[in-house]
Structure formats: C-alpha cells, structure tokens
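hiii, so i know i said id send this last week but things got crazy w the move. better late than never?? heres the sequnce for the chain we talked about at the cafe, plus the structure i predicted for it. fair warning i was half asleep when i ran it
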Amino acid sequence: FASTDDAFVEAHVVAISPQVSARVLKVYVDDNQAVRAGDPLVDLDPTDYQVALAQAKGAEAGARGKRDQAKTQVPAAEAGLREAEASVQVAEVNFRNADADLKRYEALEERARSRQQYDNAVSAQKTAAAQVAQAQARLASAESQIATAKAAVLASEGDVNRTAADVRRAEVNLGYTKILAPSDGRVTRKSVEAGAYVTPTAALLAIVPPDVWVVANYKETQLEHMRVGQPVEVSVDAFGGQDLTGKVQSIQAGTGSRFAVLPAENATGNFVKVVQRVPVKIVLDNPDPGGGRFLSPGMSVVVKTKVRD
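okay and structure toks below
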C-alpha cells in the first residue's frame, strides 16, 4: 500500500451571480439547504424589465406596420410601370403616324400642298416626338420607383429583425430576474438578502453538487507502482475514520509546486533537493456516507492505495 494524509475532498463549486441589476424581492433558500436543479433561489424586481419588454414589443409592432406599408408600395409601383410602358407604346404609335404624315406631305410637290397643312404636320411630328420622350422619362421614373419600393421593403425587414432581437433580449433579461438552481446540491456562502440591490458582479451564493472526489498528494517516491484503476481506501477524519472505497482515476501531469503561483526557481546555485508531491485524483465508489452526513470540499482524509499484491 501507498498511503498519505496529505489528501482532501474536492468538488465543483457553482457560484451564483445575477445576470441583470435589480433589487432583490425574495430569497427562497438558506445556508446548507439542499436544492434540486430548477428550484427557485432568488427573485429580482422585474418592473424595469417588464417595461423594457413592453417598449420593445411596441417598437416591433411599429416596424412590422412600416414593413407592411412598404410592401404595398411595390404593387403600386409595378402598376405605375405597366401604365408608363403603355404610355410609351401609345406615344410611339402617335409619333410614327405623325412622322408618316409629315413624310407624305414632304413627298408632294410644293404647289400641291398647303403651307398650313405642312406646318401642322411638322408641329404634330415634333409634338409626338416630345410625347415619346416624356413617356420614356415617366417609364424610367416608374422603374426607379419600383427599385425604391423594394429597397424600402428590405430596410423595413431589417428594422423588423432588429426590433425582434430587441424583444428577445428584453424577454431574456426579464427571465434573468428569476434565478434558478443550475444543478442539484447544497447552498453555501449565501450573502444575499431581500431588499438588497445586486449587480452582475455580485456573488449571491454558491451551490456544491453532490459529486465529490479526493485529491491525494503523494510523494513522487510513492508513484513507482501506482497505476490508474488501482483500489483505494479512504478514511475521513470528520467521520471518525470511517473507511470509504474508490479507485485511482488519474495522476496529474506535473507536481504541485510546478503549478504554484510562484514555481520554485532551482537555477540559483543554492539548490536543495526536496521530495515533490504529485496530486492523484481518486473517485469514490459511493460518495454518500449516509446517516445525514455529507462529504464536503476541503475535508481531510487519509488515503491508502493498493499498488502491489
């Protein structure tokens, strides 16, 4: 066996902080209380976020109305385009007729035609040409109106998407006013009370899930025969030395001192060899000792690992 008393219980500690700023309306839990995932922990005042949601929904309704209005302009612009196209065709027909009349008058001998009739034909041809140019300008204007109407629809769609996102954000923020337990566990380090104003930087409490394990800091000289999967006996100081069983899950890739905030610098010329310790993670077969007792992070234990038969 390889044994060490430099060993402790470890567990995940889930810090609970608000995601929005508000005043605390109600606190549902107390220190060391067991909770289940989804249980209410804290209620924050939702008034500001309810108002923000109503405003966001109003803005979204307005944006949708403008989008629907913009969509109606597209068929109107298309109808205007068809009308302009028809006007161009009519004007071109009139021009061709007036031009043909003028050419017939020009083909006659001068003494066989009336000067007034000839002038009228010239004037009619020029008027028809002007009408063609005017109709073509109206056609170009109608085409640009269609492009403008379609661009307005795209812009209004963007406004609808933006306001819909604002509504979603307001709904999310409103939901953040109800803080629920993210997992099963026990409440610890509760520091929140009703009436307090909290912000996202404030830690309200912590939850310690029931999944715990042991970290045993073995000397490097004890690791020669230690392997993953070897059986382990764990004696918990707080339970009067009660033995629990488990197995080696993993051995850290590095000593504890190597990952310290200020690792030892041995290249100073005054090196003294010190036996290093390597953390070994041990999972328990049954982390619930029963009898109303709980394994909590930081508890001291004595570990014995069977390394050879």
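btw The longest strand covers residues 2-11. thought thatd interest u
miss u guys!!
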